[in-house]
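The pair is quoted verbatim below.
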Amino acid sequence: MDKNIFQPYEDEIQALEEEIRLLTEKYEDIRQESTFFSDEEILKAIKSFQRETWEETKGEASPSELKAELESLETDLSFLMKFTGFHFTSHSKKTLEKTRNRTLQKHRLSGKCHSLPFQVEFQLLEMQDNEKVSAVVSDLSIIMESREDSNVSKFVSSTEERGDLLTFFRSLSTYAEWYEHRRCTFLHFK
């Protein structure tokens, strides 16, 4: 009988212990990511940023000029979203490994292309050799509602196998545009 009285408290304690464990892992990940850079590199980056900011603000742009530039950027972004059909809703990046000439990051993107939602996860390995930088996509995972079209599932599977991210975005843009045209046409006839 006494055991039943304490059960909700024990469950709450276990839940809190699990939350503490997850937060500790997250803290360790963040701490590990920040230790990839030495104090010297951090100070150099801060000084470089301050120098760039100072050079940019020498002219002291007025608030009206900044507002006009912001409106111009918003117009450009709106145009690109209409032109490509892509609207990204979230992006996360986690550095898994960083050395002097090699960086491995895990990316997660989600959004919509026209009316089709998608989520893409991949690892990006960037290698720097002298002045040449190369990037390789691996572990590509695409989550997409294939709706009633089995060809989309086949396409997604083959794209994941090849790790061809550029082909995925190009093909998704075209497919989603025509999917939207078909949907509107069928709605018209209903």
Summary: The beta strands are 86-98, 102-113, 116-129, 132-144. The two ends are 64 Å apart (CA to CA). The helical segments are 2-34, 39-56, 63-84, 150-162, 165-189.
